[in-house]
Every structure is written in C-alpha cells, then in structure tokens.
Amino acid sequence: MTVLALDFETANERRDSACAVGLAWIEGDRVVRRESRLIRPPEMRFSPGNIRVHGILPADVRDAPTFPEAMAEFLPDLAQGLILAHNATFDIGVLRASLAAYGLPTPALAYLCTVRIARQVFPDPEGCGLGKVARRLGIRFQHHDAGEDAYACAEIALAAVRALDAGSVLGLTHALAMPATAVPAAPPPYGARPDGVTGRAVAAARAARGSAAPKEIAFTIRGSTGNRYAVRSEPRVTGLYLRCSCQAGRNGRRCRHVDAILDGDVTDLLSDNHADVERLRRLIEAAPDGHRILPERLRRAA
Predict the structure, then answer these.
(1) Would you state the torsion angle of the CA atoms of residues 192, 197, 200, 206, taken in this order, to the nearest 10 degrees?
(2) Which SMART domains match (predicted)?
(3) pLDDT attached to residue 277
C-alpha cells in the first residue's frame, strides 16, 4: 500500500480555497519522494491572516493550475493509499471540498492523523503542533510551506515507528490501537458539471470581470509606520490611473502601496474589499496596450 503525507495551504477561511499542496511518499523507513504545487483557487480572495501564515500572494498563483489540474497525478495514490496529515480533518476536508467545488467525485480515502500519533508517542505540555513536535524530534523544515510540512508530517510518523518498533507506518495502527479513518466515496454534487466550479465561484468570477469598468476602485492600506493611506483608481483618457495618498503618490511616483495592490498582496489592506484586488487585475489584463493602471510619471518613463 502507498503511504504518503499530505498538506494544504488555503487562501482564506473556506476549505475549497487551496492555494498550495505538498506531498511526501514513504517507502520502508524513509521518505522517497517529495512534491509541491501552487494552486489557483476558484476565487482569488486571499485573507491577510492566511497570507501571514504561508506567504502566498494572489500574484503567485495567477498562472498556477486549478485544483483538478494540480492534483490529477496525485489522486490515484491518495485514493489507493494511506494518507498521513497533521490535523488530518483539515487537509482531508480541503481535499473533499475542493473536489466538490469543481463538480468532481471524491474517492474513498483512508488516513491517519499525526497529531493523534504525536499525542500518544511524543506527549509534551507545550502541545503537539507540527512545528513543536518537529523541533523536539530534530526535524528541520520550513514551516507553512506545503511541501515542507508534508515532509515533516512523514518524518514524525517514521519517528513514531522507530520509537514503538512498529516496523512500518501501517504497524502504527496496531501498536497504537489506532485504525485508519475511512472516508467513503462521494458522488459529484447534484447538478454540478464535471468541468465546472460551484455557483459561488462562478458568480464571484463574473462579478470580478464586470461588464463595465467601475468609475473608481478605492482601497485603504496600512503603511510601514502604521499610517493609513488611500489608494484610488481614476479613469483617464490614457487609461486608469492609480493614485496613493502617501508622499510618493502625491508627487506622482509609484509607491510600495500601489505595488502591493497590483501584486495582489492584501497583507496590509485595511478596507474590506479583497475581491476588488482581483477585479483590478482583470481590468489591467483587459486594458489595451499602453493603457495601464500606473502613476503618470512611470507611464511616461516606460
């Protein structure tokens, strides 16, 4: 049986917003393969809290494959094998919700949670979060990178095998009296097209495109010293002009606040209009050559 560790990072609070996946395969007593992929979620809505955790920005995944495209080569192993995940209900939930979002069936799955394993084999008052367990075991990895997290999860399971002399990861189920959790197969959501996404995602995409360009898109963003600045788009003959109220913006220069909005970085966005960041990107893509959303001095220099 294939044994592999799985980890997802998400763009926001929704389980169907996967923006990265990491996997690590185990054979015998070691990790033999590692893979990671960025994923373009159905909605390009990234919550600041999620960005602070994993550092992935909308700009990083604009050209990334969708969930079905990114996961196609891995799904057979996930369906036929034993999945390891740290806080497995989250990662299995992301997998199932994301498949459903694209109208795809969910295969039957079997998984073990390495949080539960660590609580029995490596208990500690400080807790059994991935980083804490890995540190206690001397596992070096970059936390909240999906591929690195999957690797650390796999190494925690292997450390438990050695600690209990269980022989293999499958042997842990007997040594700990912890059978793998079985998840039954689920058909595609009723009325969903196999190549589609949920109505929520379709509606969001259509709203982001917009049939007509808005007169103004406005953002409030936090500066490096905590000041609040306004970044506004202004329609002009030469295209949309993005103006910031900071000193550089008032002098007609492009500033880091404008760069953040154009890059889709909402880490310091204070206004509650994350969807407008993606809508602005679509306007940029649709603009004719030479009609860009840039400060005038920069446009002239280009």
Answers:
(1) -120
(2) EXOIII
(3) 85
Buried residues in 42-63 as b, exposed as e (16+ CB within 10 A): bbbbbbbebbeebebbbbbbee
Pick the closest to residue 249 from 296, 301, 299 (CA basis). 296
Q: Are strands 228-236 and 239-244 parallel, antiparallel or unpaired?
A: antiparallel
Tokens of 79: 């369906």
- Domains of the chain, start order: 3-196 (3.30.420.10), 210-301 (no CATH)
**Can you tell me the distance from the alpha carbon of 136 to that of 132, in angstroms, rounded to the nearest whole number?**
6
Inform me whether the pLDDT recorded for 191 exceeds 60: no
pLDDT value, residue 265: 84
Taking Cα atoms as reference points, which of 103, 109, 90 lies closest to residue 199? 103
| Planar angle of CA 155, 1, 152, nearest 5 degrees | 15
Give the residue carrying structure tokens 């997802």. Answer: 8
Place of tokens 């990083």: 60
Q: What angle do CA 29, 20, 275 make, to 5 degrees?
A: 165
CA distances (Å), 141 to each of 23, 49, 65, 66, 144, in order? 14, 21, 25, 26, 9
Give the relative orientation of helices 199-209 and 274-286 as an angle to the nearest 10 degrees: 60
Given this model, what pLDDT does residue 262 score?
83
